[in-house]
């Protein structure tokens, strides 16, 4: 079955540690996205990638980094510079930018 | 700045009753419009989309939405709600004016269905 995989579903880290969230898709989509979801705030775009080896900052990129070395993979690193990293993180992909997005099941990150 | 408004944070309906979830946006041109549904702790699933053409669009799970340019609205409807429809619903808008200007999501409407 085609889809988007995010792992792990739950992640716990101590403050000051970097952590990498995985996102893999087998939909052959060119575009991929990372969103952060907090209660009552909808989805906020962290980074997006239109194509391999290219990515752009979204609205809240500070404290995050990404890479896009393969079409299928778009990992997100939450660095220690992110002041409030505890949140639900969603990865998505689309055929191209401005098309409907398909979402993964999300990773809930808790930093204490 | 572009914005998407879902004025109802929480809605409660009885099973079998009709449903309408509101979505308003502020953009200059006709944008691309989407409705997504999210079950607790899960990702979002696309219900329907509007790019152009017929302003009444049909989606999955018996949902439909109507684009009204004069009201800058894209309200989601369902004639008869089922208990399994309880979830959070997000309206999303892409400016669609050429070049990527990112999708903006509303803050969501949480639907509760009572027996």
General description of the model:
The complex is a heterodimer of chains A (112) and B (115). By secondary structure, chain A is mainly beta. Chain A has no helices and 11 strands. In chain A, strands 2, 4, 5, 6, 9, 10 and 11 form a 7-stranded mixed beta sheet that branches. A 4-stranded antiparallel beta sheet of chain A has the order 1-3-8-7, with no helix packed on it. Chain B contains no helices and 12 strands. In chain B, a hairpin with a 4-residue loop joins strand 8 and strand 9. Chain B starts with a strand and ends with a strand. Classes of the chains: A mainly beta (112), B mainly beta (115).
Summarize the structure.
Chain A contains no helices and eleven strands. Chain A is an all-beta fold and 112 residues long.
Main attributes of the structure:
heterodimer; A: 112 residues; mainly beta; 7-stranded mixed β-sheet; 4-stranded antiparallel β-sheet; 11 strands; 0% helix; globular; B: 115 residues; 6-stranded mixed β-sheet
Rg of chain B, alpha carbons: 14 Å
The description of the largest β-sheet of chain A is: 7 strands, mixed
Query: What is the multimeric organization of the chains shown?
Result: heterodimer
Measured by DSSP, the beta-strand proportion of chain B falls in over 45%
Strand content of chain A: over 45%
What is the 3D shape of chain B?
A: globular
Most extensive contact: A-B, 24 and 21 residues
Residue-averaged pLDDT of chain A: 93
């Amino acid at each position: 079955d085609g889809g988007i995989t995010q792992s792990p579903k739950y992640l716990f880290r101590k403050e000051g540690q970097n952590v990498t969230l995985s996102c893999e898709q087998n939909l052959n989509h060119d575009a991929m996205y990372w969103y952060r979801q907090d209660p009552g705030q909808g989805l906020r775009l962290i980074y997006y990638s239109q194509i391999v080896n290219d990515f752009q900052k979204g609205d809240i990129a500070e404290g995050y980094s990404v890479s896009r070395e393969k079409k299928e993979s778009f990992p997100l690193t939450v660095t220690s510079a992110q002041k409030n990293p505890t949140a639900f993180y969603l990865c998505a992909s689309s055929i191209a930018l401005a098309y409907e997005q398909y979402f993964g099941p999300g990773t809930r990150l808790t930093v204490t | 700045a572009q914005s998407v408004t879902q004025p109802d944070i929480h809605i409660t309906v009885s099973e079998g009753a009709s449903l309408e979830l509101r979505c308003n946006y502020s953009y200059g041109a006709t944008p691309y419009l989407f409705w997504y549904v999210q079950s607790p702790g899960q990702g979002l699933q696309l219900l329907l989309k509007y790019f152009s053409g017929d302003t009444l669009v049909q989606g999955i799970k018996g949902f439909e939405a109507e684009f009204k340019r004069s009201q800058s609205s894209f309200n989601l409807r369902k004639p008869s709600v089922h208990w399994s429809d309880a979830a959070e619903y997000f309206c999303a808008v892409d400016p669609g004016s050429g070049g990527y200007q990112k999708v903006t999501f509303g803050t969501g409407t949480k639907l509760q269905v009572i027996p």
